[in-house]
Amino acid sequence: MALLGRTANGLFWMFRYIERAENMARLVDAGLRISLTNLSVEDRDEWESILVSAGVEDPYKEKHGELDETKIIDFLIRDQDNPSSIRSSIDTARMNGRMVRTALTRELWEATNDTYLTIRTALAGPLNHRTLPKTLDLVKTRCALIRGAFYGTMLRNEIFDFCHLGAFLERADNTARILDVKYWVLLPEHSSIGSSLDNFQWSSILRSVSAHRSYSWEYDASPTATNIIDFLMLNRRMPRSLSHCYGMMRDSMSYLDRGSETPNESAARVNMIYERLSNLTVREVLASGLHEFLEDFIIDNNKVSGLIAENYRFYPDIDPANQSQSQSQSA
Amino acid sequence: MPPFDEMLLNQDEVRQPYESFHGWFKDQDAHELASKANEAETFFRRTGITFNVYGQQEAAERLIPFDMVPRIMAKNEWDKLAEGIEQRVEALNLFLHDIYHDQEVVKAGILPARLLEDNDAFLPQMIGFTPPGKVYTHIIGTDIVRTGEDQFYVLEDNARTPSGVSYMIENRETMMQMFPELFAQNRVRPVETYPHHLRRSLEAVAPPMCEGKPRVAVLTPGIFNSAYFEHSFLADQMGVELIEGSDVAEIDGRIQMRTTEGYVPIDVIYRRIDDAFLDPRAFNPESMLGIPGIMDAYKRGAVTIANAPGTGISDDKAIYSYMPEIVEFFTGKPAMLENVPTWRCAEEDSLRYVLDNLADLVVKEVHGSGGYGMLVGPTSTKAECEAFAKKLKEDPQNYIAQPTLALSTVPILAKDKLSPRHVDLRPFVLVSDKVRIIPGGLTRVALKEGSLVVNSSQGGGTKDTWVLRD
Question: What are the chain B neighbours of A109 within 8 Å (beta carbons)?
Fold first, then answer.
């Protein structure tokens, strides 16, 4: 059965926002960890880089001006004026879920709705150092529950694929941003390739993608810039790496686009990005400039999102009658 | 005289349909029942069985309170009621066909022509058009009240877009989860087949242009509508698309929905938006919810709209008082179900009577619904009655009045004991290739002691409604 364009849109954004809520919990967790080590000088830089990673530095400064840990945490978690806060993300995810409810299994809908109710209660009042870790855990557990209901009960059809695309596109964006904010740590000038990195910086990076354990399983050595770049960008086994995300997106795209002789624009671009990531080495990335590479990636990733919306008719056509004509002519 | 109680004839005598339930209830632990009631609420909230309240930010989604004591009807009670309902819906469809064609009912002097002429619910666009299968009201929710062992009255016909059927189904679901043993002891007829029947009914009225298996969709105004849960519930249960106006367009003469793989024609639209918003080209041009061009497509046989536009005329409160004559005129038999006696304030004698007896009457706006804008005489203060009398005199045409009926009561679980509350009943009827009446319906209950207002917007709750097999 064909899927409504609006429904595909709702599924895509529902999963982008669930992913975003979870990423935000992880980012705040990493920031909190560093602030608890009391490196007072670096604290504020760290929180600032988290605001930048979250893409909300400007709206924060507009609202609060100076950087203040309590205010930053509140802005990232509870503030409904911040569309990317955990609270707003869960609200938006659930609103989209309600809109596309007929496409979801009962388990997935109930996991989403229950998460919304639970998190709304948990975030009703201000958080402090004592309640914060528990709350961040709750968000991560809840998002894991939704994902579990999704993988465990949803039919593998286009509904599944649009959810998948949303989740991995958002995740790739998140990983790229984290790396981009910290790219200077990974540059040869800062730490010569192959040598150990500043303990404090690399652990922050790995923690913000929940990978401080899996890193050592995979590389069995103290972190080096080369390995971290490889791990988070090119290693397909790392579930938050750019390459893994694009691998998953490519799989979904190949199903969605299965009928067409030549891939549509979004499928073509996903394939292209995936190929690029597959054939790249860390050395090449560094040679062409890590920051430039990541910047381009973030822009490309956004373009993919726009192309998916266009190719799969997420929004009404301005003139549907013309649309149908041009389609039937080309067909 | 105390109102008729459907469970207890008197202190020690239980009416037959409730015998088994009453016996079970006596053995229950009151505290456990109360905690079960909480469980039910959690279940409703997690499932998202909520209705939206307009204009309230935080409490925007509310639960309709659910009471665990079922309302139980014996087979013979139900069968008689169902027969009366079937006759009534049959008459309504014949009536609608007649007023949009030859108007025999007016020519025969049964219905004054002015009631059609000055009525917004009468749509000139429908004149001369016959919908597929001659069916106008595919879905009806007839509101029925009871005042005694054999006294049933039709309160309203709800022939536009009646809601509440999702609660009927979810209430049953909840009861079966909480008290499976009750269903082992009582042979209760199922209601969960409703979506299946609804889909079959809708498929049976496919338009002439339909090719192959009819494609059905539910049209909703969107997630902010008060009944959105029900819209998505029905689409989901039927396995059809839930569409909004922005999902569809008229292309190549058909109404088509925008899918990820291109445009796909829809054959039957179960619309849950009012006539006025249905088609900005035919009706309210400001409407953003509707589908431009759908009326033309409908009349060309490209799509079926359920319920048909213009059915509101048949549940209009001004027409209501003529229903007994209308039913007899079209079915050739006296109406089996009674109307509540109604004074039309437009008529001078009636107006005088209503004004003189305001304290004993219920006065309603002809076009109102949801319990808004009405006066319940016996529970109003003198000042309220006087204020209402003034409005009444200014615009008598706009009002009808009815006696305050002593609605029957069914007990609810209040704290930890049974306590009687007034109820009404909305059975759901599907009209298509044949009439399908789902055994049961939505029982609405006024949770406040003594209150006669059962509307959910006014603090009413709901009950599971059982029709026994034997």
Answer: 48
Rounded to whole angstroms, the Cα distance separating A268 from B180 reads 55
3-state secondary structure A146-195: HHHHHHHHCCCCHHHHHHHHHHHHHHHHHHHHHHHHCHHHHCCCCCCCCC
How far apart are the CA of A64 and the nearest CA of chain B, in angstroms? 25
Instruction: Sketch out chain B's domains with CATH numbers.
Output: 16-338+406-467 (no CATH), 341-403 (3.30.1490.270)
Do A304 and A192 share a structural domain? yes
Total count of domains within chain A: 2
β-strand partners of B139 = B430
CA A164 to chain B, closest CA, distance in angstroms equals: 16
User: Is the CB of B261 less than 8 angstroms away from the CB of A327?
Assistant: no
**pTM attached to this predicted model:** 0.89
A215 to chain B nearest CA, in Å?
38
pLDDT in tens, chain A (331 residues): 689 999 999 999 999 999 999 999 998 988 887 777 655 555 567 788 889 889 999 999 999 999 998 999 999 999 999 999 999 999 999 999 999 999 999 999 999 999 999 999 999 999 988 899 999 999 999 999 999 999 999 999 999 999 999 999 999 999 999 888 877 777 766 655 445 556 677 777 888 888 888 998 998 877 888 888 999 999 999 999 999 999 999 999 999 998 888 889 999 999 999 999 999 999 999 898 999 999 999 999 999 999 999 999 999 987 765 554 434 333 3
Q: Which two tokens stand for residue B190?
A: 């199922």
Examine the predicted complex and report whether its ipTM is higher than 0.90.
no
The answer to whether residues A253 and A270 touch, using CB atoms and an 8 Å cutoff, is yes
User: Is B264 in Cβ contact with A102 (below 8 Å)?
Assistant: no
Is A301 inside a domain boundary?
yes
Task: Provide the residue range defining the domain that includes A258.
Answer: 156-315
